Amino acid sequence: MGSRRPKISDFYYLSQAHNAGQVAKVWCSCCRTTRFYRPYDLKEVFGDIPTTMVREKMRCEQCKQRYYTNVDFFIPRGEEALSIKFRRLVTIKYERRVIWQDE
Q1: Residue 69 is inside which H or E element, if any?
Q2: Contact 51, 14 (CB under 8 A)
Q3: How many CA atoms lie less than 13 Å away from 49 in the CB half-sphere?
Q4: Counting CB atoms within 10 angstroms of each CB, which of 34, 48, 59, 100 has the fewest?
Q5: Longest distance between any two alpha carbons in the chain, whole Å
C-alpha cells in the first residue's frame, strides 16, 4: 500500500480557515520575526488558495527572503487570542514600470 496523492478536494482553503476562526502565523527562520494574519486578508491578496500553498506565496517583509518563511494555521485560545497583534490589509497598490528599448 503506497501513499496516495492528495486530491484538490482534500486541501483546506483560506475561506474555510477564515470560517473556522483560524489565524495564520507566519515566521521567518532567517531573521526570526513572527507576524499574524487573518485568512480573509490573505485571500484578498492571493485568492482562495489551499493553505498549504500560502508558504510558497509569502515573503518576509524584513529580510525579503522567501525560502525561510513558514506558515501555520491555528485557532487562538484564551489569553493568546487577546494578545495577538494582526497585520491588516489596508490597500493593494499596483506598480507601474516603464521599460525602455533602444532602436
Answers
A1: strand 69-74
A2: yes
A3: 15
A4: 100
A5: 65
DSSP state of 13: B
All cell numbers assigned to 43: 485571500
Place of cell 477564515: 18
Read off the C-alpha cell for 41.
Answer: 486578508
CA–CA distance, 55 with 60 (Å, rounded to integer):
10
How many whole angstroms separate alpha carbon 77 and alpha carbon 29?
A: 24
AA letter at 35: R
CA 82 to chain centroid, in Å, comes to 21
Number of Cα atoms under 13 Å in the Cβ half of residue 83: 4
